[in-house]
Every structure is written in structure tokens, then in C-alpha cells.
Amino acid sequence: MKLDMPVAEGATRLPALLEARGLTRRYGGLVAVSDLTFEIRPGEILGLIGPNGAGKSTTFNLLSGHVKPSAGTLSFAGESIAGMPPYQVSRRGLVRTFQHDSFFREMTVIENLTVAAQRRYRSHRERVDCARCIAERVGLDKHLDATAGSLPHGLQRILSIGIAITPEPKLLGLDEPLTGLHTVEVEKVLTLFRTLCRADAMTILLVDHNMKAMMGVCDRFLVLHYGKMLAQGNADEVRSNPDVIRAYLGISE
Amino acid sequence: MFNINHSVVLWNVALFAAAIVWLGVSEPSYLTQLVVWSAINAVLAAGMRFVLLIGETNMASGAIYGFAAYVTAIAVTNGFDVVPLVVVTAAIAAGVLGLLFGWVTLRVKGPYFMLIGFAFTEVVRLAYTRIDYVGGNSGMVGIYAPMSLDRWMPALCVGICYLLVSGFFVAEKSSFGLLMRAIRNNDKVVETLGVSALRVKLVCFCMAALAVGAAGAIHAYSYHVISPGDFSFLIPVYALAYAKVGGERHIVGSVIGAIFLTVVAQVVQGAGALQYVLFGGVIILTMLGVRGGLLDMLGWVACRRRRAGAQRIGLPKDRTSGELG
Q: Which DSSP category does B269 fall into?
């Protein structure tokens, strides 16, 4: 599975897929996210980590257009996307999932995925075919006619991922996709992430609390703390960063 | 799953053809009138249900329905007598009104959207009472189709209503129908897929407005007299009752509910002031008695009969669980 050279390293020569400069979001007096500057490189799996309330979700919402930035610039594939409505951001190739219920509860699995193929194909038949393909790919082909709301939790998470990859995004943002999955499911999902990244040339932004999995799959990390950027770097750099140890892992020395 | 049950379609078309033939050969009477009213109400109910698919209750349909009826009345009293053209014009006018109303209001959801629709219906109704050109409080009279068409009007009206309801059915079964249901489930996720939820809602609302507008034109033709009081908030409330009593699960439910309650309204009319109590009582009883509306009751009966039949010829029970297609 492991490639000789990490993709992220080779990818640094390419221009950034997403670039944030001084990204800030204030709610009244509260600064949820303050002066974030970072880039997401094409082909990498980037982990966004930080303790609860660090601003991970706000950052996610800023990128996907669900929250408008108070200040700063945001460009995706060379185009400014700051202040764009979510569906416009998505059309440019940035698709995200939500922490809870990132699917259509009362609809069947195949209907969920057919809706997801809406903009990828023009005819209903093509959309249904595409939905079947995706279902097979993520391992939901035995549940095509099951209502999404009645699926076990793990399969609901997988369905959410399936919906998000159907439009073939350039950047896939996943907000806590591993929560509530058991070890075998986590392994399967991580393998899927690696394939999406290596074979489908998708770039992935990952937020999750499962540190073991994150350390295993992410090429690079951004560490947030109280809405500020605390550290950036690969697993070893982040793990050995004294600021991160103090703030995030909660070890006081 | 996306296949439409062919035997149901066949039955449906056969019943419709029979109704049209009957309407064509029989003299216009109270009974033909009742069929036309049922058909109009079926369109109102199906239109209400169509907007319910995106999760909204469209209380503005009273205003849209009335607006189309008034457009028809103005056209007819000014000498325009090509019936299909008048109906199409009224429908387009209603569609434009729906577009304007929806463009402004579909940004809010749930109870807010419902209340704005309710207020809109009442404001538009009150506006008619202040405009002398449309007869103020007393409304407009003399909305007749040309004499030569008189005999064929019931068949024509029911035919148009049938096409409108069929249109809703086809739209619901398409990709667009899936999108509408997805929006009711989770509009945020729909937006992350590159689809503007507002645009889908607007198209849905406009389609309903067009159909309800056509029904409004037919209303004007079949009553010959309209007044502001005909187009109060009771129109959408009744439409909601037809859809719910009939069964929301399938569009056939809207048609069954509309026919059932139209007939009930006629039956209880003799009871004087008590009629509203009786009418309301029937709605409450159906809602309490069968959760899925009349549709589920009929489905349950059909299921039992099939099961009984299956037992006679010795089929296992589990092969007989049927659903209305």
C-alpha cells in the first residue's frame, strides 16, 4: 500500500489547490477563527486537528461557503471563493460532508446516490448507473433499496462519503467521517481514502478525533487551537512540537 | 424502483377514458358538475402535495388559484372565447405570480413560509374587494364558455385536470422529483452537491402555481360567477385536507381524497349550519382511523383480498404483501 515517496512531497512543486490568507471569522466579540494562513496541495490528505472548540468546524464551513469570512482571502484552483454560496463552491470542485446526517434519511441508498449524481450526468438512467457504480465501490451494493435512515450507523457514514465522492470533487472535505465506526470499518474507510487520493487524484481534507487513524492516513496536519494556527507539518513534526503537546495533548510539563 | 407499474397506468387511463366518454355523451347535469368540481379539487390537492414534497405547506395557493380565476373572468367578459388559450393565459399569469411570490419567500421555511402564504392569500382577497374593475365585493359574473362548447366543457375541464395531475406524477418520478424529496430531507447536503436548493424549490413552486392556475381558470368557467370570498385561505386548507385524507404517500391519494371530500361536502350541505361540523368530523375521523389516509385503507383491503385469494390457491402468505404502485 505504502508508496516509496509520499505524494505530498512530490506535490509541493505544483501550485496549491486551495489557498487561505488571513482567514478570520468573528461572531460579535468572539473570534472563532483568527488569521489562518495555509494551503492545501493537490493530491495530499490533509488532517485538520485541534481540541474541541478550536475552530475546526468553522474553518470547514468557511471553506465550503456555509460561513462567510469576516476577513481574509480564500482561493480554490486559482479562483477566489470567499463569500460564494455553497452550491457555487461545490460546482468548482469542493465537496464536503457534515458531522451529522450528511445524507437523505427518508430516501433509499440508490436514491441518495442518484441525487448525488445530479450534476455529473444529464439523463436519469446515467445517474442511476453512476449511483450503482458508487454503491459498489463503497460497499453498499447489498443495501441499494434500504432506506438510509434505517441503515446501521457505520453504513450511514459510508453512504455520506459515497454521496460526497459521486460528483468527483477535486477537494473532498470530510467532517468526522470515522466517528462511531469500529476498527474494521475504520480500516476499510482509510483504504478508500488512500485509493481516492492515489488513484482518483482527489485531495482530501480530514477532520477527526481518531488520532491513531489520522496519524496513519494523513500526509500533513494543520493544528488549530483557540481559532489560531498552532502548528503545521507531518505526523512526526506535529507530534514532537512542544506547543502541540502542551495545548492539544494536554500534557503539562 | 423507478419503473412505473404498468397495470396501474392502464387502469388509470381506462377509467379516465370512460369518464371522458360518459361526460361527452351525457347532458351537463348536477352529476357532471360534481365530477368537474372533484377534478378541480384533485388538481388543488395534487398541487399542494407537490409542494409538500419539498417540505413546505403552500398556503399561497388560494391567492394563485383566485388570481387565475380573475384573469379568466376578465378575459372572458372582454370577449376572449378561445377556451384553451384563456386557460393557458390564466395558468401562465398564475405561474408568474407564483414565481414572484416564491422568489421572495422561498428563502424562509416551515411555519414562516406557511404564514406568509396565508397572509398573501388574505391580502390578495382583500385587494379584489377594493378594485371596482373586478367588481369589488360582489365579484364578476357571466363567465361562460362559447355556446357551441357548452356540451363539451365538462369533458374538456376534466381532461385538462387529468393532464395536470399526470404531469405532477411524471415530475415526481423524475430526477427532479428525487431532488425535491432530497431537499425536504436535507437541503444543506443538496447544496454541497452543486445544486441550488432555492432554484429547485422555485421550479417546484412554479409548476404547482401553473397547474393551480389552470384549475382556477376551470373554476371560473364552471361556476360562471366568482367573488373574493371564493378565494380565502380555506382553499389551501381544503387542498391540504384532500391530500392528507386521501393519503400523502402517493398522488392517487390526492385524487381519492379530493373526490371523497367533494362528495362529502355535497352530502352534508343539507345540514345547514351543522355542515361544517359534519365535514370537519369526517376529516378528523379519517385522520384518526387510518394514519396513511384512504389510500392505505384501500391498499389494506386490496391486500387482504389478495391474501385470501392466495390462501385459496395455496400460495405462501409472504408473496402477497402488496403495495399500491
A: G
